[in-house]
Amino acid sequence: MYIGPFYFDTKELFLMLASILLGMAMFFGWPVWWFDRTTLFTIIILILITKGLLPAIHNEAFFILAIIAIFLTLYLPIFQVILFYLITFVFFRLLKVI
Length: 98
Prior knowledge:
The chain has 98 residues and is mainly α. The chain has helices at residues 10-28, 37-53, 59-72, 78-94; strands at residues 2-3, 6-7. α1 runs antiparallel to α2 and α3 (59-72) packs antiparallel against α4.
């Protein structure tokens, strides 16, 4: 499904649903155990944008990168997690892993 310059597959629909549910949790003040809601929402939006811009990404390597970035939000500040995500994404693209 194309929405402007973005291409969304069925896998991204689950990511969009997760971002909508997380947005609802932020709005209504529902607790999300162990995670900071704003940090998690920022990472989900970043993953959604990078996945939407590049439809030819191999899903397995990108999934591992996304899971690691999400779990790093438990221990590291958001700036370091975003930096890790972007640098690893660039290296994966340069080395043709993704």
